[in-house]
Every structure is written in structure tokens, then in C-alpha cells.
Predict the structure.
Amino acid sequence: RVSADARLRLALLLCQQGKSRDADSILAGLGYRARLNDMALTYRNSGASELTAKEENEEAAQQQAQKRVFAMDGAVPSEVLRRLRVALEPPSAPFWAEHLYPEVDFFSYLFDLKSSPTNLVEELILHLKPLVVQRFPEVAQAHSAEWWMHNKGSEQWRGHGLHYDCNEHASTVSTPGNGVAYPAVSAVVYLSEPPPSSGAAGPTLVLDQILGGPAAPEGYLVAPRRGRMLLFDGRLLHGVLPGTACSLDVVDKSGSPAESTTLFATHSSEHGHSVGHRVHDLRRLTLMVGWWTEPVERRPGPEAVGGRAVLESNMTVPASGDTSWSWPSTLRPMVAAALGATAASRAPAPAPVSRVRPAWQAVTAAE
């Protein structure tokens, strides 16, 4: 008997191939009543409109959307980008190994925006803040930036489930509204650029949907590009769409082209290589930042207990000289003047944001 998980994967593949009726038949049998719009799931050829385009007299609606979601290219200075990739791209790098990534649960660090940066990530956050304020003026009042990262390889085809960024330590009693505290603005900073032709790096999807509110009328897609920054209202539902079936140009050990095969990215190994062959590097390296204007409690730094890290959200970065952790030494901050010089080499520019409307559609069972 075919498992529910296998049938879900088949339905996803059918949706991505434009065979939505066949997919809906499977989903209806599993009890689903709604799913993401075809334009979202077939993002490679969806025809979703860019927010920068003026069409159908929707300029006012587009301007309103840009107040919730905006992306820019060239946000990360080239030298900062290079150093972060050197320190973080290898899956065995100290930052990942010492945090037991990806087996560990979610963890993050909290940076006081009025303090001096102790590492390259915090230095980058201070550099990015004026760019964020240009689009979201409320971030000028932000007191802290919560940051965390992901480094995904062949498993990235699954995407990243839809979720809300929130303060996991906030009291549900004292917090107004729905009892959840959110960052004023959330940011995704793309530090790598998986080959667009691979189909293994799905776009980030942001839905115009808040917790407890109605289903999103529309969604927004942003593709991962090295140095790009995506900004959105921190209350919005978001995630990463699954990758599509893709064509990988497989190369044998001698460097000679082998056959071109259509397969899921999971057919390659964790390091982006298939057994006996070399294929495109499919790692997806991202930095996430939550800009906090609401109160947020700083937690103690990580602890190493019995050879394992004890982690949580909003942690304090290990103090200088703490020999329990070596990763801070791989992310030493740059000299401020050097960072300013490399930042001036390229001015940020707006990046494409594709609009999907409607965001959801009903699952229709075959008659």
C-alpha cells in the first residue's frame, strides 16, 4: 500500500508538471481541501507578474504590496560575501559542526544594535540596517536583531515549511493581540546562488497572511541570488517552495560530460556530488534577520554539556576567549573602513518580486 507521504510527493510532482487535475485527485483522497495556486507551484514557468511592472491599472495595489515585501540585489558587500562563504559554505565548518546542524532544533542569536559587532554577521547586520530603514522606516526604532542561518544541500528540494517568525519566549498572557510577538521586519539574505537551471533551489514564498487572519489573497516569490536581500512584514506567513524535478549535467571523474539526467536533487549526495560523478553545487546558504522593536529577552549563551550543544533562540554570542567554541574565530569582523570601501563598489538595486494571485486554490476531486 502506497504511503500518504509518497502520494503527497507524487501530487507535488504532478502540480509542478502542470498536471493539477491528477494531483487534486490524489490530494482529495488524502482529505485536503486547498493547496497553493498553480502559479506558485510551477514557479519556473508560472507567468506570475513582477511587482515592478505596471499592468491592469494595479499600480496602487503594487505599491501597497511593496510596503509588505521588497527585495534588493547587491545588498551584501562583495568582500563580506566572500568571507562568509569561506567560513560557512562547507557543511563541516565549525559554525555548523559546533551547533550540531542540521540535527539540532532551531537556534538563534540576539544582537544589540547599539553595541559594537563581535563577528562578521553582526557587522553585516549594522551595514544592512540603513538599507532596511529606507523601505521599512519603523526599523529605525529597532533595538535588537535576531539572526540565524541555514546551510542546505541535496535535502533542499523539500523546501522549508510555511511558518511565522516570532519570539518563542514571549508570554502568551502579556503579549497583546493574538498572544504572539513578531519582529517588525524579517529579512532573508542569500549568500549562495544554486544554478537556476538545476531547479533544486525553490524561491522563497511570502504570503499576505497573518496568524488568525483570513487566507492570503496573494503571495510573493523571490528567487535566491547571491547577495540579494528579501524584506517583508515580520507578521507574514512564509517559507521556501520545494525544488522541481531538474536536469543535472553529470560529469564523470575525468571531467568529460556524461549523460544529462532528469531527477530530483536528492539523487545527489549531501555535498552536491553523486557517487562516481561531479554535479553542480546545490548548497543553499542563507542568513535570516528579525528586526525587533518590541521587547525581547536575551538568553544566555550556548552551553556545551557532555560534548553536545544546548541551544535555544535569542542567545548571547559566546564571549571572546571562550575556548568551548571556535566558530567565532572563523567570523572575525572586518575593519570598518575596509567594509565601507567594498560596500561602495556596488549600489543596491531593486530585485524582482513575482506576485501570485490568488495564493490558494480549492482542491477539486475528479468526477
